[in-house]
């Protein structure tokens, strides 16, 4: 019979991290093989091994004998407390973290350290630890993506909340958390198209499951039996009818949307370098948002995490490794700098697997024929659709540009998860995709107005994103049902004015609603009002708005264009 502890103390945490080192070594090749996102460089298992080994070494320093100041002999140290062991775990993991997943895993250990202040860790304290870890990860990762280690962590934290008050003991608790993580890991190929295409579960999520399974073993004496996770040729998910639906492959599509043959597929990343370093920041952490913004301009996969004691671990994928290091140097003292050249793209080009594409294009996703003509007239490539386009449609539109750099204006039509997946898939065509945060077509027009193909792509994309962010956007729609809004109760047929997704105007007449909406937006200033009229807008509505702006806001310029969009009677932008 195994003596199940009621809580985790320092020695149990020490045993746990030792078991984790052995388990990660055993699973390293398996996890490396699963590594396809965000860059298929097959090193996630190796990175996780390094991260957890660094955490274990930090714990061992607490137990190592220390020299006696009065002699050459070494004396034993007092047994470290639970909080000291947990803090060493976190500090060592952050300092030694490698790769995206290693950095995120270090935050799980930091969550445990944060929850250990009250002593040994029982089910309630571990629930707090997982919740805190999820908070830290969401703060650290610039663009959280479903179907990754974050999804697995969220599932584990949610289950912990549900079972923490169970009277069945710590063993039942940790088993339930691990099983929930395993189920979430199995779902990852159906959440992220890149994984579905490869038939792989998320490599980082697999690593988190190893960590939790080792916790089950140290508490109960038996590690859960898991299958060896390998890539499969296809991944299927059940549809509403219960029948399987094969996940769409975004690996390589030609202009007709046909999948290329497997031997023609070669994963490649535009980002040439993975840059990681530790950063000591003087004073508070106020400089971290500045560093994050700068790194997001340089590349992607930006993760910045702290150890809770003034030390920070910085991670980014980018083309200019020197600029990434200099960004940290402006704020503090970078050390233990590690730069890895992926080299995948150049290798693929040398084999002839990727074309060497030149030039830049802006691709706008629009609804409405007139809006499509407007964007095309401003020099953009256009993907016209009645609703959210499928991932394959967007990928093929990017491929058809036949240029190396594509700036995508989603204009509020494309789901964020599709943007991430398609952007990754486009790399296999030798194309670098920059996704701008345009939530409406009026914001897309504002960004397109400052586009300059002669600037460096990072500068051009930043300037365009800044123009989109500086354009306040609103929409006018007709209510389809009775509902309670911030502006009161609306009835079917009422005109609804929305700013930032919130309904702030409810009127019987569209003309009155539109005028009130414009007055609200100009109440905080504005020099230019741009309006796209939808297919449901009447000529009298356009005329009344022109007269309203001329009479009530004479210093404001009005640009009014037919858009032809179906959902919104009006899209309004104020700059």
UniProtKB/TrEMBL annotation:
PROSITE patterns: DHAL. It comes from the Bacteria. GO terms for biological process: glycerol metabolic process. This is DAK2 domain-containing protein. InterPro entries: DegV_domain_contain, DhaL_dom, DhaL_dom_sf, FakA-like_C, FakA-like_M, YloV-like. Residues 11-217 form the DhaL domain. It comes from Speluncibacter jeojiensis. The lineage of its organism: Bacteria, Bacillati, Actinomycetota, Actinomycetes, Mycobacteriales. SMART domains: Dak1_2 (SM01121), Dak2 (SM01120). Transmembrane segments: none annotated. SUPFAM superfamilies: DhaL-like. GO terms for molecular function: glycerone kinase activity. Coiled coil: none annotated. Pfam families: Dak2, FakA-like_C, FakA-like_M.
